[in-house]
Amino acid sequence: MLKLARNRPRFSRGLCAAACGAIGTVALAALLWSGYLVIRWATIGASEFDRGYDLQEFREYFPFVALACSTLGACSGWAVYAPVRRSNLARTLIWIFGGSGAVWGVTGFLGLIPRRSKDESFDAFHLVEVLLVILPPIALAILLTVWRTRQSSSQTNEELQCNSGAPRE
Q1: Stretch 115-124: mean pLDDT, rounded?
Q2: TM segments (predicted)?
């Protein structure tokens, strides 16, 4: 009797890759931003006021950058390592970053993100902002994982059918 292969996502490997991707991308973003600030300060001869303003801007905007980078890194790590057969990381990053960037561009163009006013005090994140940053990469990672799992499952089933004992000539 022909036994069909059951290819399921490997959750432990996917979660480990997601954690490494999230930590790595946030560390890279922090390193790049701080490197930019140091080089900027050195080239323009920034005053104490300029440095204070830049650091305040860093404290204000870096949580958004960290949230987006960690989500992109985690989803890319999951989509590469969770399926049974590993995929190319560069292609996965292109799919997830490109799709998420397109959604973020459209939502920014349509003005779906609430504007912040300097007069009011606000939380670090609005719920709409968090959902718009997190949901597109997660949806794309799920779609890529399902597609790659089904693709490897059909390939494995074809290999089993070919090797099922049919006489070779």
Answers
A1: 65
A2: 61-81, 93-113, 125-147
**SS3 for the chain, per residue?**
CCCCCCCCCCHHHHHHHHHHHHHHHHHHHHHHHHHHHHHHHHHHCCCHHHHHHHHHHHHHHHHHHHHHHHHHHHHHHHHHHCCCCCCCHHHHHHHHHHHHHHHHHHHHHHCCCCCCCCCCCCCCCCHHHHHHHHHHHHHHHHHHHHHHHHHHHHHHHHHHHHCCCCCCC
Count CA atoms closer than 13 A to 73's CA, side-chain side.
Answer: 19
21 or 116, which is more confident?
21
Closest CA to 71 of 100, 98, 95, 92: 100
Position 147 scores a pLDDT of 87
Residue linked to tokens 């490897």: 152
Tokens of 90: 């560069």
- 144 pLDDT exceeds 70? yes
Residue 62, token pair as written in the block: 């870096």
